[in-house]
Structure formats: C-alpha cells, structure tokens
C-alpha cells in the first residue's frame, strides 16, 4: 500500500504456561499526501494471533483464526486501502496496529502501551476490530467512557449501524477482554465484533471454510463513512474532540433506526411513558374495560409464569450440561452441543402453553385482554424503574411499552384499532433482535433470562394482535 511498516518486538514475555514468549506487533502510519506529520490520527487495531491450544471436554483444540481475528485484519486492510485512494483530501493521519499475543493476556497491546507510547502519539480516535464467532451482524458492543460525542458521531455517519449501549454493561460481566480493554482508558474509541456463533469460536471450526463474507462486509459498511469523515474533517485535528465527561445511551431497532439520547432525555422519556401509562389505565377503568384488582392479579400471574418458564429453561440447560460433562455457567456455558435445539424447544413449549391459556381466557371475557396487557405494562414499568436506577438501561422494556400504550390509546377510537398492528410489529423487531444478541452474547447458560423476557414480549404481542382483530364497540 506504499507504507513503511515496522515490526515492534517484545522478547522474554512471561508465559502463563511456563517459560517465556517472544512476540511482535506490526505498526504502520500513513500521512496526508504532501505532509510529513499530522496533528491527530485515527488508529485501527486488530490482533494477529489466533487461539492457543486449549483443553475442552472433547479434547484439545485450537483456532485457525479465520474470524478471530482474520475478520478484523481483513477489515482494517480493506478500510486502509480504500482510504488511501483519497489521501489528498485528508486533514488527519491514519495509524494501523496489528497486535501479537492478544489471546495471551493482551500482551501485544499492553507492552506497546507501556513501552512504546510514541506509537499512540496524537491518537484522537481508535477502532478495534474483534470477532467472537463467525456470523451475524457486526455489533458496536463497547465504547470508551464519556461516549456522548462518540455515539453522536457513530449514529450520524455509520451506515447500517447496530449497537446497544447495554452491551457494555453485559460485557463487563463477561470473562472476556480485548485489546480495547487497556486502550480505552487512554483513548476514545469503538470496539466492533460479530458475536455469533460460539461453536465456531476459539476452536478448529474457526477456519476459512466457515467465514461469512456478509459479516466481514458489515465492519466496513459501518466504519468506512466514519473513517472518511475523520480523515477529511478539519475539526478532528483536536485530539480532544471525542473526549467528554458525559455518556449517552443508544439502541438499534432493525429496519427502523438507531436511537441515541443523553441521561436527561432518558429520564424525560421514562417520565412521559409513566404518565402515559397512568392515563391509559385510568381511561380503561373509566370506560369499564378493566378493573384495577384484575390488572394487579394479571401482573402477578405474568411475573410468576415468566419466572417458572425461565426457571424450567435454566433447569433444562443445567441438566443437559451435567449429562454431557460441560461446566455450567450463567454467562459462559460453552461446548454444549445442539444448544439451539434446547433453546428452540424451550421457546416453542412456552409459546404453545401460553397460546392455549390466552385463547381460552379471551373467549371467556372480552375485557381480559385489556386487563392482561395493562398488567404486563405495570410489571414492565416496575422492572424498568429498577433497571433505570441500577444499571441505567431499560430501553428493551420501555420502548415496547411505549408501542403498546400507543396501540391501546388508538384502540379507544373507533376504527383505529389498526394501529395495534404496526405497534406489535415494532415490538417484534425490538424483542427478536435484542433477545438474539442477548442469547449469543451470554450463551445458553442464560437461557432462563432469555425465555423470561421472551415471555413478556409474547404476552405483549398476543395482546396487541387481539386488539388489532377486535374493534372497540
């Protein structure tokens, strides 16, 4: 590509398996055409090594690294190649760092940060390209702290963005780290990764025959417009441009868009929904459609039923793990073959059992559906309040609640029950995409939590469908 790459060596690194390691990072810097240096740089990072030999219940295995981190390396190289075609327009420079020994305690990145700080001089933004699986959408699953300008930049320029700020919270509970972990303390930046499928992660299945080109392409689809904007925009010459003490929240609803807002807006959003819920509840009581005691009973029934469904799913996973000799963990159950069959079976059993119950109840009472969904909204609102003031994230509950409330409001107006259809479709888009990412991220060990949330979404979708099919008289 015309660069002058350097091999940065670190010798006699202590090895956790005994002895020492000799490792080497690869570093390259590109400047705008006609210039020798830049005031600021964007650094793209990926790691060179694949997984070392690891003992599993099925014997020793290692990874060929086609996805982890061949995906990241390929994305960085192609992004750099494309960016160099308009290097005359650059106002900032580009740095590339391929780290060694990421899989071994992040040695390549750690030693570079500690011993070769000049490699990171004037870095104003950092992209880390990772892979945890071989397929699916590329998720922006982590940002550095003070992410307000980062998320604004991402939602404005990335094409086909896909992110949940909640994933940073979930990732903090996972036993995983990336090169971004030590770097994010010093530089603002993004951590991108595919996260599906764990059966192709850190083992021999991570080979060239199992790559997914559409997943590789999604790295570039998101990052290329951001890279172009940073390299050509004059305002990014300030290396502090993306530094902030404020955080924002973001979540993506496929086919609709990515929403981004600050803490104040989040509190206002939650307060508005709470007032809207109280208004809807009162309206349905006033017209004789619901009784408050029935609403409370439905909320309790949904809570107990959801816990039982989730508990049964967790028990099934635990039993399957014991039978196959696989270590069970709520957030990291690996090597359980055919886990997707267990997940689908649990989901189908829950759906069939609930459908039978719902159909019988709606045939007996026309008002049941309204007491049922308002009870659900009450339960989800309580959960949302707890989450808002503990982990600060509740969009996966409150956004569907908003959709349901809109459907209920319009159902009060004759012939506008049709609004319940788009409302339930949005709930489906939100729920399915979120549960997919939650399941793939925390593994089958968390199937109980996934089934519990799936039960809540099912109750809402079934109720909205009933509202769509029956016009208020």
Structure report:
The chain has 473 residues and is of the alpha/beta class. The chain is built from 13 helices and eleven strands. It has helices at residues 70-84, 107-115, 148-157, 166-172, 180-183, 213-232, 263-286, 292-324, 339-364, 368-388, 395-411, 420-442, 447-469; strands at residues 6-14, 20-30, 41-47, 54-56, 59-61, 93-99, 123-131, 139-143, 189-194, 248-253, 257-262. The strands form three sheets. It has a seven-stranded mixed β-sheet with strand order 1-2-6-3-7-9-8, with helices on both faces. A two-stranded antiparallel ribbon has the order 4-5. Helix 1 (70-84) packs across helix 6 (213-232), helix 8 (292-324) runs antiparallel to helix 13 (447-469) and helix 11 runs parallel beside helix 13.
Summarize the model shown.
The protein is α/β, with parallel strands linked by helices.
Cα shape: globular
Strand order of the largest sheet: 1-2-6-3-7-9-8
What composes the largest sheet?
A: 7 strands, mixed
In DSSP terms (H or I, runs of 4 or more residues), the helix count works out at: 13
Number of strand segments: 11
Unreliable parts: none
Helicity, as a percent range: 40-55%
Beta-strand share of residues: 15-25%
Cα-to-Cα separation, first versus last residue: 71 Å
What is Rg? 25 Å
